[in-house]
Write a structure and sequence with these properties.
heterotrimer; B: 145 residues; mainly alpha; 4 helices; extended; C: 121 residues; 0% strand; elongated
Chain lengths: 279, 145, 121
């Protein structure tokens, strides 16, 4: 290997190791990794596991910043390991730890179930009374580009948990919903296909909802996809206050369009097979 | 899924302080809480002390000379500072938390500009006005005679 | 939705405190520079000034409004901080009762003092 590459150097990884079968508390372990420019933290962890300590455990999958599996505390900030270059965040020593504000199962693996349970409590799906989307799956919803923009940013969330790890309220109050579920709550509230604002009000305006957010803003600072959950939560606070003061504009959810009526049906086209998805 | 043995990785109250890598808004949040606690504590005592005016001049002046001692005067100035910061930061928080200073949802393009960037001018304004008021009140408190 | 209601009033109380409390701060701590509401000159806490303010028609009622707003704002904020420490349901109920009773008690006492001081001058 060319050790004369500009910028290549030895970096000391400091990782708290925890094995639930043998340890009662995490212990820091050190590993020296030869780092070339462009290597991500995920590459470094693989190097350790392949060549130094095969018991090191962490979650990863896509290695390109879209699955949200590899969220960790890197150099003191919650980030994705796969899209963080080692030499961007470390000179000689790099601390890599599990995401804070979660229980830790092993090494760098947090227990994310509370986050997903809170996400489910936010009812993150389209609520419609008038139209059942599964009944006529060929129909499209009629939505303008402006209506799309109102929620598109918040739909980029990959559920990595970095925002939950950065939130100061979650640091002390484990029952708080957290930035990700609340941002997803707002994402559906402003989606014009959805009519579920009143159903979600109880959770959003409840004791563990937006009232516990005080705009420390760290969630938006650390989000690797630019979702800006802090913005979503503040916009939702306004919606809830307006709803309380009976000033919120009620609008009907957008309608659906069936198949284009102007196309002529084609001849000799075989029938579609029956649905394979349960409707 | 079977029960797993885990350890609690919550930061606790330390999570309010961060590690020096957090944004300024997080520190403003912590300071807003601390000044709020200080003001609530002071205010509770303030109600009790200033109600002495209902008992006449002698009672009032007795209390005023008690709270006039130098240590309590210095504490009172801290309360003035806390009020200035809490009120001005509170104005910023009202604007932000009602969705006025955070901007609308937009397509995120790396490097991301978030709502924090949008409301940063408010932070600067708040700190500037607070600094001016601190100087003015400090002059009136300690020097004007 | 209950929290949203509390929070809305918390914000409104904050605005009231900003205006009335700000005026109070200027009266008390810019007395040398501005002399607001201090007809007798000198310090704002001199008895002459206190008596003048207490005896006027409007002042006791402004103080009562400020007292109510500040007690609600402050004690709701304190409740927020305490609840976020992760209290169990029983502890939450206790905190609620203590803060409500304490707040109402102080409010009643403060109102009495404001009205009684009109005739104590």
């Amino acid at each position: 290997m060319d050790t004369e590459t500009k910028g290549a150097r030895e970096i000391l990884f400091v990782i708290p190791r925890y094995n639930p079968e043998t340890d009662s508390a995490p212990q820091n372990r050190q590993y020296t990794v030869h780092v070339e420019p462009g290597m991500t933290v995920l590459d470094g962890l693989h190097e350790i596991k392949n060549n130094q300590d095969s018991t090191l455990s962490w979650r990863f999958s896509c290695r390109m910043g879209v699955c949200g599996s590899c969220g960790m505390l890197i150099a003191g900030k919650p980030m994705l390991a796969c899209n963080t270059q080692i030499l961007h965040v470390a000179d000689r020593v790099l601390t890599v730890g599990p995401l804070p504000n979660f229980q830790v199962i092993k090494d760098l693996v947090p227990d994310l179930r509370p986050m997903f349970e809170k996400h489910l409590a936010a009812e993150p799906y389209i609520h419609r009374d008038d139209v059942d989307p599964k009944a006529v799956p060929g129909d499209e919803y009629y939505q303008t580009p402006e209506e799309l923009t109102r929620f598109l940013q918040f739909s980029y969330c990959i559920k990595c948990g970095a925002c939950m790890a950065a939130c100061p309220t979650l640091a002390i109050d484990k029952d708080y919903m957290g930035p990700m579920p609340l941002a997803q709550l707002h994402r559906y509230n402003v989606d014009t296909r959805d009519a579920g604002f009143d159903q979600r009000k109880k959770v959003a305006g409840g004791a563990f909802g937006v009232a516990r957010c005080h705009y420390a803003g760290e969630c938006s600072n650390v989000c690797p996809k630019g979702v800006d959950p802090a913005r979503a939560i503040q916009l939702m606070k306004r919606d809830l206050v307006l709803s309380y003061l009976r000033l919120r504009k009620r609008s009907r959810p957008c309608g659906t369009i069936g198949p284009d009526p102007h196309t002529r049906p084609k001849d000799k086209v075989p029938q579609a097979p029956p649905f394979t998805v349960l409707t | 899924m079977a029960q797993q043995k885990t350890y609690d990785n919550r930061l606790g109250l330390k999570g309010w302080w961060g590690g020096g890598r957090w944004g300024i808004e997080r520190y403003l949040y912590t300071l807003h809480r601390l000044t709020g606690l200080g003001l609530v504590a002071y205010f509770t005592l303030h109600i009790l002390v200033t109600s002495s005016r209902a008992f006449g001049q002698a009672a009032w002046e007795r209390w005023m000379s008690t709270v006039g001692n130098p240590i309590l005067r210095a504490g009172e100035y801290l309360v003035v500072l806390a009020f200035i910061f809490h009120a001005l930061n509170g104005i910023r928080l009202v604007l932000v938390e009602l969705g006025f200073a955070v901007g609308q949802a937009e397509e995120p393009i790396y490097p991301y500009k978030t709502s924090l960037n949008k409301q940063r001018p408010l932070v600067v304004l708040v700190m500037l006005v607070a600094a001016i008021l601190v100087v003015v009140s400090g002059y009136d408190f300690w020097f004007a005679d | 939705m209950k929290e949203t209601r509390f929070w809305t009033w918390h914000i409104l109380a904050g605005v009231v405190i900003l205006i009335l409390g700000g005026l109070h701060m200027l009266t008390m701590h810019a007395d040398e520079l501005l002399g607001l509401f201090n007809p007798a000159g000198g310090y704002a806490i001199d008895w002459a000034n206190v008596a003048a303010r207490s005896g006027q028609m409007i002042f006791p009622y402004i103080y009562i409004l400020l007292l109510g707003a500040a007690l609600f704002h402050g004690y709701y904020g304190l409740r927020n901080i305490l609840f976020e420490l992760g209290l169990k349901k029983g502890a939450r109920a206790v905190v609620n009762v203590v803060l409500v009773l304490g707040g109402i008690g102080l409010f009643v006492f403060g109102v009495w003092a404001a009205i009684a001081s009109r005739s104590a001058v």
